[in-house]
């Protein structure tokens, strides 16, 4: 994630955060949302938006990075609120939503930036999965020795479901199947 300059003013940080929040919502609704429409929704001038994000691709990348970081940051709270299998399921439902957003944003990115964003997110996502799996291993609710890369690949089916109600229902069933398969009593013979 790009570092903030220490001299950045508080209002500039607030504007940037507001732009990212509004842009995430706008791009989730319409992957073609313009920079001017984002600025208007954020209640700022176009010049303010362009100072932070010189082009649409820079904004899209920043939105994706912020969303990944927000998702990774949710792990401790989920584990505090739910048993590890439920926290893992909740987190993967959030990840599936983020990946659907990224697919929508993908059209706004050059192939190189799309690949770079995916590669940049991979490490933090796998570490978040590792944390969730370790919590389940410690309390005995998840199988020991699960590889987070394998679990991520297995979960890939969840975000490949079609849009709409039927796709959401299928994603819910797949989440149940995958999380159930990670339990210690699900090894099969």
Write the topology of this structure.
Blueprint lengths: L9 H20 L5 H8 L3 H7 L3 H18 L1 H7 L2 H23 L4 H29 L8 H8 L9 H17 L8
Helix pairs in contact: 1-2, 1-4, 2-3, 4-6, 4-7, 5-6, 6-7, 6-9, 7-8
Question: Your description of this structure?
Answer:
26% of the residues are buried. The chain is 72% helix and 0% strand. It is elongated and about 60 Å long. It folds into two domains: 7-54, Arc Repressor Mutant, subunit A; 55-184, Orthogonal Bundle (Tetracycline Repressor, domain 2). The chain has 189 residues and is mainly α. Helix 1 (10-29) crosses helix 2, helix 4 (56-73) runs antiparallel to helix 6 (84-106) and helix 7 (111-139) crosses helix 8. It has helices at 10-29, 35-42, 46-52, 56-73, 75-81, 84-106, 111-139, 148-155, 165-181.
CATH fold-level name of the largest domain: Tetracycline Repressor, domain 2
Give helix and strand order, one letter per element, not per position.
Answer: HHHHHHHHH
Low-confidence stretches: none
Q: Biggest sheet: strands, sense, closure? A: none
Percent of residues in beta strands: under 5%
What is the number of strand segments? Answer: 0
Distance between the termini: 45 Å
**Average pLDDT over all residues:** 87
- Number of separate domains: 2
CATH class category name of the largest domain: Mainly Alpha
Can you give the helix content as a percent range? over 70%
DNA-binding region: 34-53
Keywords: DNA-binding, Transcription, Transcription regulation
Domain HTH tetR-type: 13-71
Protein name: TetR/AcrR family transcriptional regulator
């Amino acid at each position: 994630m790009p570092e903030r300059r220490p001299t950045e003013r508080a209002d500039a940080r607030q504007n940037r955060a507001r732009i990212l929040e509004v842009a995430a919502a706008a791009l989730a609704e319409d992957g073609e949302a313009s920079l001017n429409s984002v600025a208007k929704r954020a209640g700022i001038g176009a010049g303010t938006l362009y100072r932070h994000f010189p082009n649409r691709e820079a904004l899209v990348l920043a939105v994706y990075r912020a969303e990944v970081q927000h998702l990774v940051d949710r792990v401790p709270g989920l584990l505090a609120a739910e048993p590890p299998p439920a926290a893992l399921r909740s987190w993967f439902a959030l990840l599936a939503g983020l990946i659907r957003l990224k697919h929508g944003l993908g059209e706004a990115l050059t192939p190189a930036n799309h690949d770079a964003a995916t590669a940049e997110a991979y490490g933090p996502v796998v570490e978040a999965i590792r944390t969730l799996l370790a919590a389940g291993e410690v309390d005995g609710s998840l199988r020991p020795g699960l590889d987070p890369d394998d679990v991520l690949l297995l979960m890939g089916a969840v975000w490949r479901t079609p849009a709409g109600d039927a796709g959401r229902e299928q994603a819910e069933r797949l989440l149940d199947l995958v999380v159930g398969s990670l339990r210690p009593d699900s090894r099969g013979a």
